[in-house]
Amino acid sequence: MTAKYKQVWDLDSIFKGGTSDSEALLKFLNELEAELSTFQKETDAADSNVETWANIIVRAQEVGKKVRESGAFVGCLTAQDVKDEGAKLLTGRIKQLSSMYQSILTSIDEQLLAFSDDEWNLFISLDSMYEIVFNLNERRQNAKEKLAGDKEKLIQALSIDGYHAWGDFYSTIVGRMSVDIEEDGEVNSYSVGQAANKMSSNDRTFRKHVFDQTEKAWEKESELFANTLNHLAGFRLKTYEARGWGEVLKEPLQINRMKKETLDVMWDTITKNKADFVKYMERKAKLLGVEKLAMYDVSAPVSENAEEVSYDDAATMIVEQFRTFSPKMADFAQMAFDKEWIEAESRPGKRPGGFCTSFPMSEQSRIFMTYSGSASNVATLAHELGHAYHQHVMNDLPQMSQRYAMNVAETASTFAEMIVADATVKQAETKEAKIQLLDDKLNRGIAFFMNIHARFLFETRFYEERKKGLVSANRLNEIMLEAQKEAYCDGLSEYSPHFWASKLHFHITGVPFYNFPYTFGYLFSMGIYAQAVESGGDFEERYIDLLRDTGRLEVEELAKKHLNVDLTKPDFWQKAIDLVKQDLDTFMELTES
Where do transmembrane segments lie in this chain (predicted)? Predict the structure, then answer.
């Protein structure tokens, strides 16, 4: 039977040829490099007139779109084929162009600081600046807390072959890795992404085999990964030290436009509720016939009859369920499938994980994942489409106002995921199917409450030790195990000591602490979902309004304006967790022996 939707994305419509040797891309990069060079000189020579700088900022936003467009394209190339040598070289060039652009932004920040209060008030009152006043105030405030412009530019220049190089090196190592897995008496070699998909097997012996082989693969390269992690963290810490930043969470909180008070109360409220989720893990262990779950059991299917969902069926289901909440979101998702915006094919050579990236000039998005038919894959597909829709409703805003933080970015994606997950549970035709689908939903709760918490604890403690010197691979294993045991309330029989090496997020240089925003987004989306269920017809426009504000409000203000809640108090977080507990209670009732 012929598939309705292709599982390979179309990159040709972005840059003709769609490959790393695209002539259209090369021409674009050459022109962009020349434009950035000219723009930097003009910025450096500009007088202090407010109109002049307003024009510079308007232009900077347009140039920023070009940098983003080319960077997103090259990111797609490296993800679809980790051995694409041309794409690897282009990655270096993109980093160079990004550094040139950041240098221009630093020059702009210097001028924002140089304006007197009267000049500043005149500047932000200009019509061309009206829509980005929040972003301009934010840039000015953040600039006050950094080094002088020439020093910040030096850091940016050095980061290409220093800081970011360690992230690139990590990706290079992962790209050459393979995991040998024995199936039906035959040993096959898989990429780490393909091996990860095999962890959803309902055969526990096979799951343990895949887990052990994967751990061995990461252990084999652990010394190199310890190097990448130590050195990118060292670069980050030295930069913080130069700026006088004593708290390692300062930058991630600043990036996420979030108060530490909000972060602390979120984790505290989760921790107080973990005992209930430990009971769920104990029940799941009983269903699987083991005394205690191991790490490789946490997301395992509880049913031996877990059905695979074809890609076409997943697409149809996602569009149908989106339509029950938002016809506009459903139409968008349908367009993404029809226009081949999604790379989902399962094949060797792809990087692990999933992501959504945006092309601001083309006003398009692309979604990357490896689809193998599991319920988790369906959830990932819905999740990434949520990201894409978020960007879609912001395309007409100024570029500065489109730059929403990771925590609120995860809100739209998790909300989309929940729509599909809730619907599939309600539509389940048998008790067994309902139990399996509830388990899939609760797995996500465990991931956000425990797995992500373990990552946060690990990274926090690692940075404290890194301040004193290099941290060995063995010690990284120990810190990881300690964090996992604490986060999972010592509820597992076996953990993943090399998780610090296997999780790409620890090695991404663009975003420090790539963990807690996921949990924030998950619970924040719970609050939005609850209001969506209650609201009915007027929800769609309210939801779009909230998404459009994500790039121009602090998260506490965003929640107050659109949900009328206080994120610095435990009430909101507890109500969101209680929604997850409803699924937990149903699961416990259905699985009573």
Answer: none
570, 265 Cβ separation under 8 angstroms: yes
Model pLDDT for residues 481-530, shown as the tens digit of each residue: 999 999 999 999 999 999 999 998 999 998 899 999 999 999 999 988 88
Task: Assign domain 23-161 one CATH number from 2.40.128.490, 3.30.70.20, 3.40.50.720, 1.20.140.70.
Answer: 1.20.140.70
First-to-last C-alpha distance (Å) of the chain: 42
- Kindly report whether the global pTM for this prediction surpasses the value 0.70: yes
Residues of the chain with confidence (pLDDT) below 50: none
Structure tokens at 146: 């950094």
**Which residue is associated with the tokens 């790209």?**
175
Is there a contact between 283 and 293 (Cβ–Cβ < 8 Å)? no
Residue 224, token pair as written in the block: 């190199």
Instruction: Return the amino acid letter for 479.
Output: I
Beta bridge partners of 358: 365
90 DSSP 8-state letter: H
- Write out the two tokens for 167: 């992230």
Half-sphere exposure of 459 (CA within 13 A, CB side): 27
Tell me the pLDDT tens digit for each residue of 342-357: 999 998 888 878 899 9
Domain segments of the chain as ranges: 23-161
Task: Quote the CA–CA distance of 202 and 68 in Å, as a whole number.
Answer: 42
Neighbouring C-alpha atoms within 13 Å toward the C-beta of 39 = 27
d(CA 174, CA 156): 26
Concatenating the DSSP letter of every residue in 357-426 gives EEETTTTEEEEE----S-HHHHHHHHHHHHHHHHHHTTTTS-GGGG---HHHHHHHHHHHHHHHHHHHHH
Distance CA 17, CA 530 (A): 45
Query: Which H or E run contains 182?
Result: strand 179-183
